[in-house]
């Protein structure tokens, strides 16, 4: 019950923070894409800082959830953040969700619930098993390397392809952060000595900074209804692969249950994609200096957007 409550709290906080952050990042100049200077520009925006503060609260709830339950299940629950972000963005833009979009959003919720029901009887964390630390490090390194490769390809691309690749990179970075956060959450209760001699605290800092940079760069493309669903779909898919493939989070559900859980993940991902297709394409936004009052989100006026 703690896992479900804290994971859902993380989803709400992450979704709200994402909507606020995208609203600011979309106005940043493209020349800063993928560079640390982008974060310095955004840090001068009070609304963006508010979004980060909300997401820090989400991180705290996420860490508790990851300590209480398996990575794959927690990440499926947290993926509901996309629905929260879409609703907030639609309210801001003055464009209500269509019936088809609401159906897709409810399908996402149903898919997450089905996955949870099918996999919750499984094994939790296997922290006492030999090789767990190495498997966690391997999972983080694998998702981190894949995120970096997708980011490099995205920064060299343009238009829709750029948005897709950067969103994939951000989703993989989210999964990498979740893996190291889970490891960190299991070390933290052992006290400061154990914490600061563990690789996890440093991995959280590095992965967290990289995750924020890649996510803001994806938001900067100004295609929120394309980037948000891709991030929301890639993150749980990658996390399920790491949790079941490397960390031994094998649910006791048999072959039929395994197929059903996989189908739930597929349906959830397709519903997220449907939500993206149901949204209008954003009009090109005129870039303005970040420290100008005018730069506060032309993207959300008119054909608008999200995270």
Task: List the main descriptive attributes of the protein structure presented here.
mainly alpha; 0% strand
Structural summary, described in words:
With 307 residues, the protein is an all-alpha fold. Helix 8 (159-187) runs antiparallel to helix 10 (199-220). The chain is globular, with a radius of gyration of 19 Å. Residues 280-307 have low confidence and may be disordered. It is built from twelve helices and no strands. Helix content is 73%, strand content 0%.
Class inferred from helices and paired strands: mainly alpha
Mean pLDDT: 76
Helix content: over 70%
What does the main sheet amount to?
A: none
| Count of individual helical segments | 12
Overall geometric form: globular
| Beta strand count | 0
Through-space gap between termini: 28 Å
* Cα radius of gyration in angstroms: 19 Å
Strand content: under 5%
How would you concisely characterize the structure shown here?
With 307 residues, the protein is mainly alpha-helical. The chain has helices at residues 2-25, 36-42, 46-68, 71-78, 81-93, 99-119, 132-156, 159-187, 192-196, 199-220, 224-245, 254-277.
Give the helices and strands, then pairings.
Blueprint: H1 2-25, H2 36-42, H3 46-68, H4 71-78, H5 81-93, H6 99-119, H7 132-156, H8 159-187, H9 192-196, H10 199-220, H11 224-245, H12 254-277
Helix pairs in contact: 1-3, 1-4, 1-5, 1-10, 3-8, 4-11, 5-11, 6-12, 7-8, 8-10, 8-11, 11-12
């Amino acid at each position: 019950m703690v896992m479900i409550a804290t994971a859902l709290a993380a989803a709400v906080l992450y979704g709200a923070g994402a909507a606020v952050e995208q609203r600011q990042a979309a106005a940043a100049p493209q020349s800063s894409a993928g560079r640390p200077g982008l974060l310095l520009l955004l840090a001068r925006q009070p609304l963006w800082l508010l979004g980060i503060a909300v997401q820090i609260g989400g991180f705290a709830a996420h860490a508790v959830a990851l300590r209480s339950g398996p990575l794959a299940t927690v990440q499926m629950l947290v993926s509901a953040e996309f629905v929260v972000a879409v609703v907030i963005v639609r309210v801001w833009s003055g464009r209500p969700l269509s019936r088809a979009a609401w159906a897709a959003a409810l399908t996402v919720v149903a898919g997450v619930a089905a996955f949870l029901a099918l996999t919750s009887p499984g094994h939790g964390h296997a922290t006492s098993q030999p090789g767990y630390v190495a498997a966690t490090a391997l999972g983080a390194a694998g998702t981190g390397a894949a995120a970096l490769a997708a980011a490099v390809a995205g920064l060299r691309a343009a238009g829709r392809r750029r948005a897709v690749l950067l969103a994939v990179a951000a989703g993989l970075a989210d999964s990498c952060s979740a893996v190291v956060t889970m490891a960190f959450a299991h070390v933290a209760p052992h006290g400061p000595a154990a914490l600061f001699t563990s690789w996890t605290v440093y991995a959280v800092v590095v992965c967290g900074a990289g995750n924020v940079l890649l996510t803001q760069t994806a938001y900067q493309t100004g295609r929120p209804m394309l980037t948000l669903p891709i991030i929301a779909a890639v993150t749980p898919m990658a996390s399920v692969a790491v949790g079941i493939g490397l960390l031994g989070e094998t649910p006791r559900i048999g072959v039929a249950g395994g197929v059903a859980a996989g189908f739930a993940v597929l349906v959830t991902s397709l519903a997220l994609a449907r939500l993206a297709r149901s949204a209008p394409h954003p009009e090109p936004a005129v870039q303005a200096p970040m420290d100008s009052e005018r730069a506060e989100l032309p993207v959300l006026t008119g054909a608008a957007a999200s995270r």
